[in-house]
Amino acid sequence: MSSDIRSGRLSAESIRENYADLHAPLNPLQAKQESARCLFCHDAPCTEACPTGIDIPGFIRKISTGNSQGAAKTILAENIMGGTCANVCPVEELCEQVCVLNTAEDKPVIIGQLQRYATDHLFDSGAQPFIRAADSGKHIAVIGAGPAGLSCAHRLAMLGHQVTVFEAKDKPGGLNEYGLATYKMLDERAAKEVSFILEIGNITINTGISLGKDIELDALREVYDAVFIGLGHNAINQLWLDNANAEGVHNAVDFIQRIRQQDLTSLPVGRNVVVIGGGNTAIDIAVQIKKLGAETVTMVYRRGTDQMGATEYEREVAQTNGVLIRTHAQPVRINAVDGQLISVVFEYTRVDSDGRPVGTGETFTTPADQLFKAIGQSLHPGPLSKSQAPDIERKRIWVDQNQRTSLPDVWAGGDCTTGDDLTVVAVQDGKVAAHSIDEYLEHG
If both were cysteines, with which of 22, 62, 98, 330 could 45 make a disulfide (CB 3.0 to 4.6 Å apart)? Predict the structure, then answer.
């Protein structure tokens, strides 16, 4: 049976239109009008809800007075990746959710779009609002150039320390560069943000260097004054079914990386596509493959809508882009002919007394020439196996409230410690770790 997967389902022009901004950026008048809606609460619930603790009323007030650069500095002082987070942070469940204007009669201040307005203004101006402290003579190794690692590196450099970052991939940026939907990160935003971070100085990034292969934790601890681990999720959960490696079956994470790095017209796109999973990765691949020309995209999740990792807003994005979301069903068989995927069999599920999804025995079959597995990622401790490793609990590196591991000179943060898969949380982890490292270097 021949495959119905091919590249170039849509023209380059059509893809550009499909991949336009979900929200047009605010112009100065719109930004001023929206900022005027803010009540500038003294004990602002929006600031409390922000994992990085941005003074949200403070930056909005600066926008209202025309001080966009000052607003951006307020944002970036707490979240150096505030530009990315303005585009990808789940504000609908964080700051905007708790806005006092978020009522049945009104709507919350659009904090995310105001944050983008301010940070875009600063980046476009070329201004650099941060300077380094005097050189401390200390040198820290950071493993991973993702949000946690770069946040840690930037704050350490501000505090006067020298930092060397080791990154396994060819480009720095981590999730922001390789793992986020392209339509959320247009115009090389991730790369521009990395360049901005590096402008502080005293940060060297070595790409193509893998922990456990090219370098070992024990050796880094001997050479450097402290080490920060920001490995992220380095393993993809598997779908243990026959034909899970048939032609047309992909890991969603790997394919999203291809979307971010390749010519969009060159990517293979199926006619009937199935996505397994209910998190942000599942949404990102489902929406993007639809924007690339798939005729039908069906996203299937084993639990109910309320248990999905993806937010209500993300689900709405998927549905308004033509993605069908089916819940309470789990894959039980992948059908292939001559090694080519042709369909997926799902079994309906119900929730048992322990709250777990269990099969009902009733099945349905969905035709598919392309299948994306988005069933989660985790930390694999392999890169740490040849060294004295920090304690690992439930497939995560254990850390205390200051991101310090069980090893006295090693800190960690981001997905390898939390599993949250959120840039904003990783940035906070890196910032907290940097201050803890600075305290350790000064006082031991």
Answer: 98
Q: For 426, phi and psi rounded to 5 degrees? A: -60, -40
- Residue 425: CA atoms inside 13 Å, Cβ hemisphere, count? 15
Contact 232/416 with Cβ under 8 angstroms?
Answer: yes
Q: What is the pLDDT of residues 228-258, one digit of tens each?
A: 999 999 889 989 999 999 999 999 999 999 9
The rounded Cα 381 to chain-centroid distance in angstroms is 21
Q: Look at strands 162-167 and 203-207 and give their pairing.
A: parallel
Angstrom distance (rounded) from CA 429 to CA 120: 24
Distance of alpha carbon 403 from its chain centroid, rounded?
19
Distance between CA atoms of 59 and 121, rounded to whole angstroms?
Answer: 13
Which token pair is 296?
């039908």
Helices 28-35 + 56-64 axis angle, to 10: 130
Give per-residue pLDDT as tens, 289-317: 999 999 999 999 999 999 999 999 999 99
Residue 185 tokens, joined: 């990160």
Buried b (16+ CB within 10 A) or exposed e, 145-155: bbbbbbbbbbb
Which CATH number, 3.40.50.1980, 3.50.50.60, 3.30.465.10, 3.40.50.300, labels domain 236-375? 3.50.50.60
Phi and psi torsions of 266, nearest 5°: -95, -5
* Dist. CA 144–CA 361, nearest whole Å: 44
